[in-house]
């Protein structure tokens, strides 16, 4: 039996309880051994339901546990950096939910922490571990659709609950931070380099003040990415990659199903073909990829430098919406 990395989970956030923890428990290299909440009864309830051995009534207790190797941090966005720092300073590797911070400056503080502590710190863009995205990279590199010139994306859902963390501006809520970050990450991944400049149009909710409808243009050296994201429209997700000789579309780009196959379509002069990928859980694969990286000294899927560059594009888009001009993302 292979060695497994021992994980602790900060908080009983829904994404952890419903998706990430059950998935990681199926991993070959991951073992979830503890969970923490500020409410011990809540932590105990989650631990019992998920079969996790240890429950803590504070984040501090979990981080101090010497038997834990790594922390999964699904806390609200404004708590990502503070608790990632605490975990790293306790010698724990950290997989932090996206976006990793609220600003570029805040994200960059993690560089010094990582250098000082020697731990791995990564951002949880689980899509990067899914076979459909690994295959997309291969297709682009093989030139099947010629030279990539355009990426078009759309991601939306409907949620107007003012108490929901995604609708609290002070906690880093809003469409661009919550789901637009995926479309930025996908654009950077597709073009395999960074946007030179960006422009955005943003509509904000008059009461909650979060951006509920955001559209963006990212100008790359070899093409453009255009996308719209919203927290107050019908549920939808689409991404297309269009090149000089063809195009690629991933049927369900972000929330790939775990109970049925995923599909990727390629159209070029040779016709239209569909590639099918067996049902799998990208959260399981993400956890195992991070765990293996720690156990075997490998690179993690989305390292801190990549997370900071993604945050640079997000920050520049917010700036563009205010200025009405092209803005230039900060780079590491």
Architecture overview:
- The chain has 332 residues and is α/β, with parallel strands linked by helices.
- The chain has two domains: 5-126 and 285-301, Rossmann fold (3-Layer(aba) Sandwich); 147-243 and 311-323, 2-Layer Sandwich (Dihydrodipicolinate Reductase, domain 2), CATH 3.30.360.10.
- 35% of the residues lie in helices and 29% in strands.
- It is built from nine helices and 14 strands.
- It has helices at 14-24, 40-50, 59-64, 80-89, 104-117, 131-142, 175-191, 282-296, 304-323, and strands spanning 5-10, 30-36, 54-56, 70-73, 93-96, 121-123, 148-158, 197-204, 211-220, 223-230, 232-243, 246-250, 262-268, 271-277.
- The strands form two sheets. The protein has an eight-stranded mixed sheet, covered by helices on one side. A six-stranded parallel sheet has the order 3-2-1-4-5-6, sandwiched between helices.
- α5 (104-117) runs antiparallel to α9.
- The longest helix has 20 residues, at 304-323.
- It is globular and about 55 Å long.
In a nutshell, what does this entry contain?
By secondary structure, the chain is of the alpha/beta class. The protein is 35% helix and 29% strand. It has helices at 14-24, 40-50, 59-64, 80-89, 104-117, 131-142, 175-191, 282-296, 304-323; strands at residues 5-10, 30-36, 54-56, 70-73, 93-96, 121-123, 148-158, 197-204, 211-220, 223-230, 232-243, 246-250, 262-268, 271-277.
């Amino acid at each position: 039996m292979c060695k497994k990395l021992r994980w602790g989970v900060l908080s009983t956030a829904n994404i952890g309880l419903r998706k990430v923890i059950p998935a990681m428990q199926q991993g070959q290299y991951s073992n979830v051994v503890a969970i923490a909440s500020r409410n011990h009864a809540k932590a105990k309830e989650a631990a019992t339901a998920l079969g996790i051995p240890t429950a803590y009534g504070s984040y501090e207790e979990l981080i101090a546990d010497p038997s834990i190797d790594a922390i999964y941090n699904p806390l609200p966005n404004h708590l990502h950096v503070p608790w990632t720092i605490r975990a790293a300073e306790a010698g724990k590797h950290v997989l932090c939910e996206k976006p990793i911070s609220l600003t570029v400056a805040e994200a960059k503080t993690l560089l010094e922490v990582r250098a000082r502590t020697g731990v791995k710190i990564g951002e949880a863009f689980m899509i990067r571990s899914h076979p459909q995205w690994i295959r997309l990279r291969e297709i682009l590199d093989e030139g099947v659709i010629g030279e990539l010139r355009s990426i078009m994306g759309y991601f939306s859902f409907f949620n107007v609950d003012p108490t929901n963390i995604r609708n609290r501006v002070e906690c880093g809520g809003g469409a661009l931070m919550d789901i637009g970050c995926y479309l930025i990450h996908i654009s950077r991944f597709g073009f395999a380099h960074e946007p030179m400049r960006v422009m955005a149009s943003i509509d904000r909710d008059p009461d909650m003040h979060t951006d509920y409808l955001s559209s963006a243009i990212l100008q790359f050296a070899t093409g453009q990415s255009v996308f719209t994201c919203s927290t107050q429209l019908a549920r939808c997700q689409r991404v297309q990659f269009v090149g000089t000789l063809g195009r690629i579309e991933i049927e369900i780009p972000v929330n790939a199903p775990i109970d049925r196959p995923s599909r990727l379509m390629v159209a070029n002069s040779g016709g239209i073909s569909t590639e099918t990928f067996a049902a799998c859980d990208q959260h399981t694969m993400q956890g195992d990829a991070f765990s293996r990286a720690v156990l075997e000294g490998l690179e993690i899927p989305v390292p801190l430098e990549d997370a900071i560059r993604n945050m640079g594009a997000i920050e520049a888009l917010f700036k563009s919406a205010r200025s009405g001009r092209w803005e230039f993302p900060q780079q590491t």
